[in-house]
Design a protein that fits this description.
The chain is α+β, with helices and mostly antiparallel strands and 501 residues long. It folds into three domains: 264 residues, Thrombin, subunit H, CATH 2.40.10; 94 residues, PDZ domain (Pdz3 Domain, Roll); 89 residues, Pdz3 Domain, CATH 2.30.42. The protein contains twelve helices and 27 strands. The strands form five sheets. A six-stranded antiparallel barrel has the order 1-3-4-7-6-5. The chain has a six-stranded antiparallel β-barrel with strand order 8-9-10-13-12-11. Strands 15, 16, 17, 18, 19 and 20 form a six-stranded antiparallel beta sheet that branches. β3 and β4 form a beta hairpin.
Length: 501
């Protein structure tokens, strides 16, 4: 190793340590050393994975793991997710760090990209909430290159999950969902996604830890893996050796190489019905601070139960407060279900619907009593509290002024052509304005370009442009030829038009 090489490695290590933990999507979240990786109501139901997924490859003892075959089967079900907004991000900052601006144009849409995977042939797709948070337009690009506008069906900021849907004709390839509860530390897994814009990249590693706490100590149970994960992997699948999705890649650590985190797929599947039907997730809540009853606490407090959830604090005005729970109470069962730890109780209560009744077995001062209480809805952390209300129609219709392509045009005259240095032999219309999150803008069309043709039909005037656009079939991709005077070249670009009311 040369001195120069050693110097580069040392510098990289220092920078990585200082950065902390980085999100695998497109924005880092501040104030923590672990950062998130990053609509119309759907009427169809999300079918169960077993009903739509191809059969997974069984494990054969002694046979080598073939992730090449796994990737070949899974690649078609992994998608690229692009999100664009017209201005500020949901926290009020302009030009948010989790999106990349196109060029230096201040009117450019703020964009972010991540990954996702298809879970139903009718077009339902899972990704991270932070990938699509605050987006005015969500575009899904399939493995075969087709692009679709996506509806945001539902979100759960608490665990960073979003459910999308695209309208397609014909079935889509589906990623089979596995059982994350059966994962073991040391088990081989692979991740497929679009890190740094490199679409459908495959990386392989092992499960390093199960149940890692990063953001919400009560809900988090991340899978830690050393499979390489980078920006743009957010929302992509973590896959076991049988070709089943066992997690959703979400975050990475920059304090060390190849430490990534994924949401267990079992946690995601559990909330899918609420995402589909309600657009959000409501969790049960009793209002206590808990800790695990460890052997040390068992001895120090001289309590009878050896396992359970120890009450540390009771929030005023909550179901626990009204039911008379106190610090040092030990909860040993809920609705007859044994509680062995604080996590057991939290997950059980969170899985119940607000407004339902629960009965807790509570040990206090040598006596076990049953305490009934009525659950309320679990409040979201302050960082997500203002982001729970989503529009059931995330894709706004194109404005009547901009039309379905999201542009405004005017006739070319001699003065304009001279001022814009447009060749005198060109016939077309000048693009004077572009919707910052519209279809033309995302296709990299800019104000100042000259529109020459649409689907090989020449456009010589605004009247011709309007007539051609009015005759476009709904939802059909169109090919436009534009002239870019800066490059002094003609370019053919495809656009997926919006619908105009």
């Amino acid at each position: 190793m040369t001195r120069q090489t050693a110097g580069y490695i040392a510098l990289t290590a220092i920078v990585s340590f200082l950065l902390g933990v980085i999100a695998t999507g497109t924005r880092p979240a501040s104030g923590t050393d672990v950062l998130r990786a990053r609509s119309g109501a759907a009427t169809a139901t999300v079918t169960t994975p077993a009903a739509t997924a191809p059969a997974a490859t069984p494990d054969v003892p002694g046979q080598p793991i073939d992730f090449a075959a796994v990737a070949a089967r899974m690649n078609a079900a992994v998608v690229n997710v692009d999100a664009a907004s017209r201005g500020t991000d949901p926290r009020g900052r302009t030009a948010p760090r989790w999106r990349r601006d196109i060029g230096d144009d201040p009117s450019a849409p703020h964009e972010g990209s991540g990954s996702g995977f298809i879970i139903d042939p009718a077009g339902f797709i899972l990704t991270n909430f932070h990938v699509v948070e605050g987006a005015d337009r969500i575009t899904i690009t399939l493995g075969d290159g087709r692009s679709f506008r996506a509806d945001l069906v539902g979100v759960d900021p608490a665990i960073d999950v979003a459910l999308l849907r695209i309208a397609v004709t014909g079935p889509l390839p589906v990623a089979p969902l596995g059982d994350s509860d059966t994962l073991r530390v040391g088990e081989w897994v692979c991740a497929i996604g679009n890190p740094l814009g490199y679409v459908h990249s495959v990386t392989v590693g092992v499960v390093s830890f199960l149940g890692r706490k990063l953001f919400d100590q009560s809900l988090d149970a991340f899978i830690q893996t050393d499979a390489a994960i980078s920006f743009g992997n957010s929302g992509g699948p973590l896959i076991n050796s049988r070709g089943q999705v066992v997690g959703m890649t979400t975050a990475i650590s920059a304090q060390a190489s190849n430490i990534g985190f994924a949401i267990p797929i079992g946690q995601v599947v559990a909330i899918l019905p609420q995402l589909r039907d309600n657009g959000r997730v409501a969790r049960g809540f009793i209002g206590v601070g808990l800790t695990d009853l460890t052997p040390g606490l068992h001895r120090a407090l001289a309590v009878d139960p050896e396992r359970g959830a120890l009450v540390q604090d009771v929030n005023p005005g909550t179901p626990a407060d009204r039911a008379g729970l106190r610090p040092y109470d030990v909860i040993t069962a809920a609705d007859g279900r044994q509680i062995r730890s604080d996590e057991d109780l939290i997950r059980y209560i969170a899985g119940r619907q607000p407004g339902t009744l629960a009965t807790l077995d509570v040990w206090r001062d040598g006596v076990t009593r049953q305490i009934p209480l009525k659950l309320t809805e679990r409040p979201l952390p302050p960082s997500t509290r203002t982001r729970t209300q989503i529009s059931r129609e995330v894709r706004p219709a194109a404005s009547s002024e901009m039309g379905p392509l999201g542009i405004s045009v005017k006739d070319l005259d001699a003065a304009t052509m001279a001022r814009q240095q447009i060749p005198s032999n060109l016939q077309g219309v000048l693009i004077v304005d572009v919707d910052s999150a519209g279809p033309a803008r995302l296709a990299r069309i800019r104000a100042g370009h000259v529109l020459l043709e649409i689907n090989r039909h020449r456009v010589a005037s605004v009247a011709e442009y309007q007539a051609i656009v009015a005759s476009l079939p709904p939802g059909a991709t169109v090919a436009v030829m534009i002239y870019d005077q800066l490059a002094d070249a003609r370019t053919i670009i495809t656009i997926s038009p919006d619908s105009v009311p």
